[in-house]
Amino acid sequence: MDENLAIMDEDEVHADRVAAILHAVEAGDIGRLTGLMAPLHAADVADLLEQMDPHDRRALLALWSGGIDGDVLSELDWSIREEVIDALPDAVVAEAVRTLDTDDVVDILEDLEPEGQEKILDALEVADRVAVEQALAFPEGSAGRLMQREVVIAPEHWTVGDAIDYLRAAENLPDQFYHVILVDPRMKPVGYVTLGRVLSARRDVALRAITEDSFRTVSATDPEGDVAYMFNQYHLISCPVVDAGGRLVGVITIDDAMNVLDEEHEEDLLRLAGVGDESSIADGVWDTMKARLPWLAISLVTANIAALVVAQFEATIAQVVVLAALMPIVAAMGGNAATQSLTVAVRALATRDLTGANAWRVVRRELAVGLLNGMAFAIVMAGAAYALFGAPMIGAVIGLALIITLIVAALAGIVVPLALDRLGFDPALSSGTFVITLTDVIGFFAFLGLATVMLT
Amino acid sequence: MDENLAIMDEDEVHADRVAAILHAVEAGDIGRLTGLMAPLHAADVADLLEQMDPHDRRALLALWSGGIDGDVLSELDWSIREEVIDALPDAVVAEAVRTLDTDDVVDILEDLEPEGQEKILDALEVADRVAVEQALAFPEGSAGRLMQREVVIAPEHWTVGDAIDYLRAAENLPDQFYHVILVDPRMKPVGYVTLGRVLSARRDVALRAITEDSFRTVSATDPEGDVAYMFNQYHLISCPVVDAGGRLVGVITIDDAMNVLDEEHEEDLLRLAGVGDESSIADGVWDTMKARLPWLAISLVTANIAALVVAQFEATIAQVVVLAALMPIVAAMGGNAATQSLTVAVRALATRDLTGANAWRVVRRELAVGLLNGMAFAIVMAGAAYALFGAPMIGAVIGLALIITLIVAALAGIVVPLALDRLGFDPALSSGTFVITLTDVIGFFAFLGLATVMLT
Fold first, then answer.
1. Backbone torsions φ then ψ of A148, nearest 5 degrees
2. Do residue B381 and residue A300 have CB atoms under 8 angstroms apart?
């Protein structure tokens, strides 16, 4: 509780500031607006812009365009980035992107329409423009897109003293770097030394003697998801990127990897819920509708299949109308059990904890859990149905149907995502819709089929 | 597709290695087992142990206990950590924990039973034991538990040269550090300098002149979720931790924050699915049942409420049996729309993109989307029902019911998690079960109520 109270207090402070900012915007009071906005971190400015309604956002940008720098653009959610860039004078955009590292410029460019891209490329200095265009030549979602090209390297024969002298003389060091990468004469990385080691070793120590065991490289064409997994799995802080010939072309740092991990989590969560990947809380009504309609449409089709199954048993239902009242129980239990099994499977596939090595064991486990939970609820529900309707056979029917439904739910929840993964599709796409429909169809069939045999 | 093929290839390599390891375990071939295990990273050894079935795991540990070091224990999922520690000789455990930083020892201890904790505390040197016990005095899930106590500090008046000389002479520097923290005479942190800056500045430069703007501190009692959010939001790489008096007591590094972020994602995902927080793919049948049964039990109760609503309309259903076949369509559309709305809301609350500043705008958006999607599907489904059953009034009933259901689903999906958040509960706990039951109950009531009025 204390934790949440603290957050609520912060929320209130935040709400007060937002109110003051909106007030300054309405009053057109640039001085007061600047006073309120200037102390904010770029990430907080971006959040503020995302949370405002579009009308207020335009008004704020018109008053305070000079305050939007490269860091703010870089932090903005893609869903409103284009809108913000369009609202800014060209000179402000040009100034903003010139201060960014190339990886951040690439990140901004990726989501823009061609004309927006041109506007930004034109603003860059020639060397940066070339670097950005080279990065864009790598496939979307690859390590080559994610990396920064600014690297700190040293010939493999250097000493600590050589490295320190070089760093002191160097201009234009990257904003962030955590290792000195050792390269051979053909620019192939052969190891790296943490800055902590460089600082704590004597000047005459060879860099080669203090390299890290954790050294790994990634290929520029590797998918960013694999790179993020590697950072998380092996606790990397930065990782050199090599081209097809094994030559150093850039470096990826942990903050970029953390971002990718966060995005992949979001993607899994939204896909499981049947919401388009790129949904954002900042989207308008139209974009939100577009993201959700396709899955609802699929759901309408699959629900009609379940309806057709039920329709086959109309004669039974007409005879024993209480069956219609019990149907939602079969559907709810099946749906919930399927969601449980499915979510655990999708998560375990994403973290690579579910592999060929343990798939069968997990399938057997799900089967056992489905059977045991099914029997437990069968007894409870059969008892309840008997108590409510006084008909022991109705209790037997709902009980047996629950056992079958929970077994199907548990199995479908693991087998469908595993199969999708093997076939090269994202298991999160198996989403509620398919697995739950499958469970519903078999559950209704079992329930009404048993009822037909046992009650009529 | 290429991405997934690459992963499948890796999976096959992985499966081959696992098979070879199991074979060596069965044959009791220690030499071959060591040859296969030794090249693996500690994180991969831990994954392997998690993926094996319990019987094979015990056999492997009996053969190869000496190979389990502190890093492996540290990487193990909590669900099998206790089992592994119990299986190891005391001397191996003692040796393993002695090599770890205090934050990793704390992380291991947290999840153990008291006797397991004693075994590990006894193995530590006195100074480390005191440090670990001090960390355990902070509340669970706080920054104090997450931080490492090994810090690299410098008096605020030092120069770059002073810092380098100190680091060269220092013994026992932490494994990882990214900043030199400047402290005042009372040990209050006043700024920090990145190692890159220390390395690239001249010896006579004052550290105070090259501190970072990003400098922030956290309090040892702050919840770890807030700390992880801060790292992600402000791109921190390390962050000093202070006590109630503002004095430096430790430092948190980005890899720990990344871990917390990952765990919080997992928690949200599992809670949304109604699976206990601490479910793991390595759990056995019994633990899995225990994690899932409570939510299924709640779901059984709420499903019975929906059943009671339907039971009120038995007379109507007896007259127009096709209503029973159409009920699953109302339930499926409502359930899917509610899941969409709910998932987007829970995610946005977790990333703090949904706040008091935009809550009403998002609620209005959900309402509009619910209405528009409802109308779209009402037209389609009303047409389909008319075409199938030739009864225009049945089409009108299902159409109107879908509009009401989708509006309720969209609203419940946002209002319930917002309300839980305001009341200080985790919004992910609003889970499918509550929101979907609410939608079902109102959807069935609308559908069958309209049918009663319009058809009978």
1. -100, 145
2. yes
> In which order are the strands placed within the sheet that holds B179-183?
B153-155, B179-183, B189-194
| Set of chain A residues whose Cβ sits within 8 Å of the Cβ of B297 | 377
Rounded Cα–Cα distance for residues B155 and B169 (Å):
16
- Shortest Cα distance from A301 to chain B (angstroms)? 9
What whole-number distance in Å separates Cα of residue A124 and Cα of residue B424?
Answer: 48
**Contact at CB, A53 and B358, closer than 8 angstroms:** yes
A12, part of any domain? yes
Which residue does chain B place closest to A195, by CA atoms? B195
For the entire predicted model, the pTM comes to: 0.85
Asked if residue B267 and residue B290 are part of one domain, the reply reads no
List the CATH number of the domain containing B23. 1.25.60.10
Give me the number of domains chain A comprises: 3
Residues A3, B259, A153, CA angle at the centre, nearest 5°?
130
Statement to judge: residues B427 and B307 lie in one domain = yes
Note whether ipTM > 0.90 here. Answer: no
CATH code at position A396: 1.10.357.20
User: From the CB of residue A244, how many other CB atoms can be counted at a distance below 10 Å?
Assistant: 9
Q: Which domain holds residue A419?
A: 285-455
Contacts B275 to A, Cβ<8 Å: 340, 343-344
pLDDT in tens, chain B (456 residues): 344 444 445 556 677 888 889 899 999 898 999 989 988 899 999 989 988 888 889 999 988 887 888 899 989 888 888 888 888 888 888 888 888 888 888 888 887 888 778 888 888 888 888 888 888 899 989 999 999 888 999 999 999 999 999 999 998 888 889 999 999 999 999 999 999 999 999 999 999 999 998 899 999 999 999 999 999 889 899 999 999 999 999 999 998 898 898 888 888 888 888 887 666 777 888 888 888 888 889 889 989 999 999 999 999 999 999 999 999 999 999 999 999 999 999 888 888 888 887 888 899 999 999 999 999 999 999 998 888 777 889 999 999 999 999 999 999 999 999 998 888 888 887 666 788 888 999 999 999 999 999 988
**Contact at CB, B357 and A51, closer than 8 angstroms:** yes
Using an 8 Å CB-CB cutoff, list chain A residues near B265. 262, 265, 269
Cβ within 8 Å, pair A296-B444: no
